[in-house]
Structure formats: C-alpha cells, structure tokens
Write a structure and sequence with these properties.
By secondary structure, this protein is an alpha/beta fold. It has a single domain, classed as Alpha/Beta hydrolase fold, catalytic domain (Rossmann fold). Helix content is about 40%, strand content about 15%. Strand 9, helix 12 and strand 10 form a beta-alpha-beta unit. Helix 5 packs across helix 7. It comes from Pseudonocardia hierapolitana.
Length: about 375
C-alpha cells in the first residue's frame, strides 16, 4: 500500500506516544504551570509508591499519612498572590453541625462583607481522594474566598477523611457528612440568605459532590440541590486496573500517568476509602458506575476535566452518562493543565483560575 493510500492513524499523545515523556518534555503543558512545577521540582514523572495495596494496612496508612503531609506542605508553599490585586472584603464564621452518624461537622461560611439580598449558595467539598488534605488549608481558604468575592455564600464542609492520624473513616463516612451538611444548608437557606444551592468540588470533592446528588435522588431529597459543579472528578476507583482495561475504558490513565499525580498512589487512597473492595462498583462510592437510570432527573451539572490529567477520561465518561439520561449538563476540557491546576495553582495559571471562578459563579447565578 502506498503512503498516500494508507489508512490514517489516530494521533497518540503523552505517554501513549512516548512512555518516557514527563512534564519537562510534555509539549502540551501550559508554560506558566511548567515554570511553577519546575521551581518546585515537580516537573518530572511523579514517583510511584514503594508499596501497593497488598502491603500491611499499617504500612499503607503510614504511606498515606506521608502523602497527606506532602500535599499539605505543597499547598502551604504555593504562591497565590496576583500583582496589584485588591481583595474584596469577606466575612467568615464557623458552624458546628451534628451529622447522621452522631459526629460533629465544622462548616466554614464565607460571604461578601457588603453584599445585600439573596445570593447563590455554594457547598464546597475539597479534593484529596476523599482520604487526605484538610478543608481549612491555604489553597482551600483562598478558593472559598475567591468564590465568595464574586457574590456567593460559600459553605466549606470539613467532612471526615478516610485517613486521619487517629484512625480511618472509610466510605460512606465522608459522604454522610456531605449529606448532613447539605441538609443543614437547605434548612437554613433563609438565615444564610441564599437563593440556590450548588454543590461544588474538585477531584475527590467532585466524587462526593456527584455522589451527594445521587444519594439525594435515592433518598427523595433532591429539593436540597439546584446544581452540581464537578471539577476533575476522581470517580472510577480504577487506578489499579490492568493496563489493558485502562486502555480500553479510560486511556488517560496511561496517557497522563505520572503527570503531577500517579495511578499507583491513587490506588492506595482507594484501598483506604474502600478497604474491602465491596463497593468497587457502587455508584455512591464510585460515581463512574452510575447508570442512566441512576442519574435521570438530577439537577443541572457542569463537568470539567483537564487535558493532562490521568482522571480526564472518567470525567468525560460521567458527562456522557448524564447526557444520555437527559440531565442538563455542560462539559469542558481545560487544555494544557494537570490535575486541578485551575484551582490550586492560582499564581501560575491566573487566566484559567479566574475563568473557572467566573464560570462557577455564572452557573450558580443561572439556577
């Protein structure tokens, strides 16, 4: 067959094209993000962990605790300032809510200091694979503040992580806390001065945001949610799948593996969130497995994914499920960005960060 008559080959990107590619050599990477990651020594291939889920649970817990500390340290070190920025004044307060499991849940409430009249309400659920990272850290506080400054009341949920220094809280502990927080916000709409309730989260927070909506439908509580905004959702639990299954279902796990985050590390988080694996295809644990029947009748959603993220394709898959079920949904792909960079790397990718904040506000205002 001549060169002119050969069938065209699909373009292969990232590690599907060259298994040795890393963020130093990834041509698609945003230049500001490349510089920021290089300054942090994070522009190489993210190292896989020295153990896997078959290791002793105490060793897994020790590794996950180290990952928590490392990401907390990263978030504390990330510069967030914008030249010439004049911050909008906001007010803060904390509420303590009793959860359905009898535990106390802290809610951090941020609102514009001078705003009048009902405002959209945003229930913010932070990332970290439902397992690590604190709700009240530098990045999450900045995110909540920036969203509130657009004219929203932001309620950040301090749900129980699956890992803590004092022990584990596997599924469904964190989901129960998000549901309890949602119920409290719904009951206090008038006191909070909110006109609508959007549940928003990134990564593991997007998992909990999507699962909170699925659980609300199951329990007849959908009147509590007006919309869901899920960024870079961590929803398959399939990070330890064999390579052939990843390539067949979610090839971004291979294409972008090691770009900022690593599938083997994420699989250890899965093993702490669902230790027995009995919920491996439970949509409330891993929304990727939701059917069109599960999602029919849900409120409007926005699903965003990032081009250079191992999780990209599972977010796209969930978008397709919502679309097939007739749920009003918008999907977006942020080109050149790694996992959650558009909310965590505020200084490195300011245009993407600002655009995301504006879009969340516009979505909440539209409901």
């Amino acid at each position: 067959m001549s060169e002119m008559t050969q069938s065209p080959r699909a373009r292969r990107e990232g590690r599907l094209d060259d298994p040795s590619v890393d963020l130093r050599t990834e041509p698609r990477l945003h230049p500001g993000l490349r510089a920021a990651l290089g300054a942090l020594g994070m522009d190489g291939h993210a190292a896989p962990p020295p153990l896997d889920r078959s290791a002793d649970p105490a060793a897994v817990a020790e590794y996950v605790g180290g990952a928590h500390a490392a990401f907390e340290g990263l978030y504390a070190a990330l510069p967030t300032e914008w030249p010439g920025e004049a911050p909008v004044a906001v007010s803060y307060r904390t509420e303590s809510v009793r959860g359905v499991d009898g535990n106390d849940i802290a809610l951090h409430i941020v609102r514009p200091a001078e705003a009048a009249g009902p405002l959209p309400g945003l229930v913010y659920v932070h990332g970290g694979g439902m397992t690590i990272l604190d709700a009240d850290n530098k990045v999450h506080r900045q995110w909540s503040r920036d969203l509130a400054a657009t004219g929203m009341v932001v309620i950040t949920v301090c749900f129980r992580n699956a890992w803590t220094p004092h022990g584990t809280n596997p599924f469904p502990a964190g989901l129960h806390d998000c549901g309890s927080a949602l119920d409290w916000v719904h009951e206090h709409r008038a006191d909070l001065g909110i006109s609508a309730v959007v549940v928003q989260g990134e990564s593991g927070g997007a998992n909990l945001a999507l699962a909170t909506a699925l659980e609300a439908k199951r329990d007849g509580r959908l009147d509590r949610i007006d919309g869901v905004y899920a960024m870079v959702p961590y929803i398959s639990g399939g990070y330890g799948w064999p390579t052939d299954r990843k390539l067949r279902e979610l090839p971004s796990m291979v294409e972008n593996n090691g770009h900022y985050i690593d599938c083997e590390m994420m699989d250890l988080l899965v093993s702490v969130y669902d230790p027995t694996g009995e919920n491996a295809e439970n949509p409330l644990c891993w929304p990727y497995f939701a059917t069109t029947t599960d999602v029919e009748g849900l409120p409007p959603h926005v699903i965003t994914v990032n081009e250079l993220d191992p999780l990209r394709d599972e977010g796209i898959a969930y978008f397709r499920t919502l679309q097939r079920a007739g749920v009003p949904v918008v999907g977006k792909v942020n080109l050149g960005l790694t996992h959650a960079a558009d909310m965590s790397f505020r200084q490195a990718v300011p245009d993407a960060y600002r655009a995301t904040v504006r879009d969340i506000h516009a979505f909440a205002r539209s409901l």
